[in-house]
Design brief:
about 375 residues; alpha+beta; 4-stranded antiparallel beta sheet; 4-stranded mixed beta sheet; 13 helices
């Protein structure tokens, strides 16, 4: 290619300016070649970006969010400020997915263990009467637990000032902080009230002749104030202070499960995907050998509100596929019999594995959970 043809392919204004400045100089031909090389590199980078933008344009809004989170997590390691925390017990226990309405009690089984929730009451700061609260449910209840556990761990305090931290957390999770009857502030405060009022029990069974029931009340108290004049019911100041149960707080500090907040944001609109994210993080963090869960076991833990196991299987496959869009190396696979989780190195996990965990060879048996 002649020098004039080479010059004709240099199009970027800044490169053309360098070209004109070099005209008549002793090294003009070498400068032209160098500028041409830089132009070609830029053209190739633009072509790659164009292909990526075209690919992303065909994705749904949720797919674009998952795709963006995957790129961030792959290129930026989880720093301390990216990590949130939830109690390991809560990572295993799923709340209702949908509003249970007038139901006052809810149970869910996972393997040989069970969670039981009983709705409670709170003292109304305006009327002074005990007002019944519904059962906590949906993604916002899970995000509220994640937020409060995180603040307790960060502050090393069983007392969390809700109004000081909740609005920032809502924005981090991608929610607009809005007031009014249908605003997000009211929705999050409602789930906080339901969580603070309810009683939680964990039932453990050895499969033979021994069973244990644990009372695990997350909160000792919730301090509610009547909103000040002009604030309205949607003000965050109405809910001031949450105090964790001391025993729950102490075990939280010892057994807090790290969660990448960027992943939590990607699934902030889905209760079941958040449950799956927490549960996989817990299981994979300490998995010594392959683990199999039957479809029946998965249905009990993640599909108790779905009467049809057939429709549950379809939904669960989609949920797991969405998590694998964010974490392509997630060592989880589905077949006709259920789910198989495999031990993996740190790059495939949601959080690093526990130190000292011994890995077993791939040839060793798979642990089954019926």
């Amino acid at each position: 290619m002649g020098i004039e043809e080479t010059i004709a392919e240099i199009r970027d204004p800044d490169l053309l300016a360098e070209l004109e400045a070099a005209r008549g100089g002793f090294l003009f031909a070498q400068i032209v070649a160098h500028l041409h090389h830089r132009q070609r590199e830029r053209n190739e980078a633009r072509a790659v970006r164009g292909q990526e933008e075209a690919r992303r344009a065909e994705l749904s809004r949720d797919q674009r969010r998952r795709d963006a989170v995957r790129l961030v997590i792959e290129n930026e390691p989880a720093l301390p400020e990216n990590l949130q925390h939830i109690h390991s017990v809560l990572a295993l226990c799923g709340l209702p997915y949908r509003d249970p309405g007038a139901m006052r009690e809810f149970s869910r089984t996972y393997g040989r263990n069970s969670l039981n929730l009983i709705a409670g009451r709170l003292k109304d700061p305006t009327t002074g009467a005990f007002e019944p609260q519904g059962l906590p449910y949906g993604p916002k209840a899970r995000l509220m637990l994640l937020h409060l556990c995180t603040e307790a761990v960060r502050q090393r305090s069983a007392v969390v000032q809700v109004a000081d931290t909740l609005s920032g957390f809502m924005r981090e999770m991608g929610f607009a902080v809005t007031g009014g009857e249908r605003g997000t502030i009211r929705q999050f405060k409602e789930q906080l009230n339901r969580l603070a009022a309810c009683t939680m029990q964990i039932g453990l069974w050895d499969g033979r002749d021994s069973a244990t029931t644990l009372n695990v009340p997350p909160f000792r108290s919730l301090e509610l104030w009547r909103p000040r004049t002009g604030e309205g019911e949607e003000s965050l100041d109405g809910a001031r202070t949450v105090r964790f149960d001391q025993e729950f707080y102490e075990t939280l500090i010892r057994h807090a499960l790290p969660v990448d907040m960027r992943a939590a944001k990607a699934f902030s609109g889905s209760a079941r995907k958040l449950d799956l994210l927490f549960w996989l993080g817990y299981r994979l963090r300490a998995l010594p050998r392959p683990l199999r869960l039957t479809w029946n076991n998965l249905h009990q833990q993640f599909g108790a509100e779905n009467a049809s196991i057939r429709s549950f299987r379809q939904g669960f496959k989609a949920d797991l596929a969405h998590l694998q869009e964010v974490f392509p190396k997630l060592p989880a696979s589905l077949d006709e019999n259920g789910l198989v989780l495999s031990p993996a190195d740190e790059t495939a996990l949601l959080v690093p594995p526990r130190k000292g965990m011994k890995r077993r060879s791939a040839g060793q048996r798979t642990e089954d959970i019926e």
